[in-house]
Design brief:
The chain is about 30% helix and about 25% strand. By secondary structure, it is α+β, with helices and mostly antiparallel strands. Belongs to the zinc-containing alcohol dehydrogenase family. Quinone oxidoreductase subfamily.
Length: about 280
């Protein structure tokens, strides 16, 4: 038996229950991962509320984590027992748990000089930034990019990575404190969206620059194949290990307090990355 946070119905944070679950042995193509840290992301809220339905109920949510492989099923070649791994897995979710059985192809080896906590905090957010600024639209030095929620987990990684590429960064934020945080991570022009019209400010800063590129991309569409996943994770690991992007964990909650973590996330009380610890 392991502990997991599962939802028995869709709804508010109160539907998240910390309880015992029984894990099956890993089947063909699967691995058993013992979590050391678990990532918290806004997509978890969408699963909890039912906006993005889970396969069945009860079900543990959570798309991101880091830990150690304890066992693998038949035919697994991507990972082996004892390997340090991290993931931002495609659906179905299931990360809010002490351990889980999952597709081995969703796991990547975590470099020894990146902690489990960093791994759990960076995979979904960091690979999201990677595909947006390297593949959806390859950002070039000298270009200007608008980043919404610049003081959030994705925002802080994106601001740093964009500065590393030589871009000018405009970022929307909700408070003076968040503006200072974004600025410290590479945002050249924090814009207070509660008191300023960010569209007008962008036009002022860029002297009328516009964009004709509109898309609705998803991480799992860009990382649909094993080579794409490995390339995306590898690029993320490289910028983190070089020091160009710092993964800063500003909030840590015990797994048992996942409901409170959701309350704080939805109330915009969090900045940077947040993790849950088993």
């Amino acid at each position: 038996m392991v502990k997991a946070v599962r939802m028995h119905e869709a709804g508010g944070p109160e539907v998240l229950h910390y309880e015992d679950v029984t894990l099956p042995d890993p089947g063909p193509g699967e691995a058993l991962v013992r979590h050391e840290a678990i990532g918290l992301n806004y997509i978890d809220v969408y699963h909890r509320t039912g906006l993005y339905p889970v396969p069945s109920l009860p079900w543990p949510i959570g798309m991101e984590g880091a830990g150690v492989v304890e066992a693998v099923g038949e035919g697994v070649t991507e990972v082996s027992a004892g390997m340090r791994v991290a993931y931002a897995s495609p659906p179905p979710p299931g990360g809010y748990s002490e351990a889980r059985v999952m597709p081995a192809g969703s796991l990547v080896e975590l470099p020894a000089d990146i902690s489990f906590e960093q791994g759990a905090a960076m995979m979904l957010q960091g690979m999201t930034v990677e595909y947006l600024i390297r593949r959806t639209y390859p950002v070039k030095a000298g270009e200007t990019v608008l980043v919404h929620a610049a003081a959030g987990g994705v925002g802080l990684i994106q601001c740093q990575w964009l500065k590393h590429l030589g871009a000018t960064v405009i970022g929307t934020v909700g408070s003076e404190e968040k503006a200072a945080l974004a600025r410290a991570h590479g945002c050249d022009h924090p814009v207070m969206y509660r008191t300023e019209d960010f569209a007008e400010r962008v036009m002022e800063i860029t002297e009328g620059q516009g964009s004709a590129y509109i898309t609705r991309p998803t991480l799992f569409g860009y990382n649909a194949t094993r080579p794409e996943l490995e390339e995306s994770a590898g690029a993320l690991f490289d910028v983190v290990r070089s020091g160009a992007v710092r993964i800063e964990i500003h909030q840590t909650y015990p797994l048992a307090e996942a409901a409170q973590a959701h309350r704080d996330l939805e109330a915009r009380k969090t900045t940077g990355s947040t993790i849950l610890t088993p």
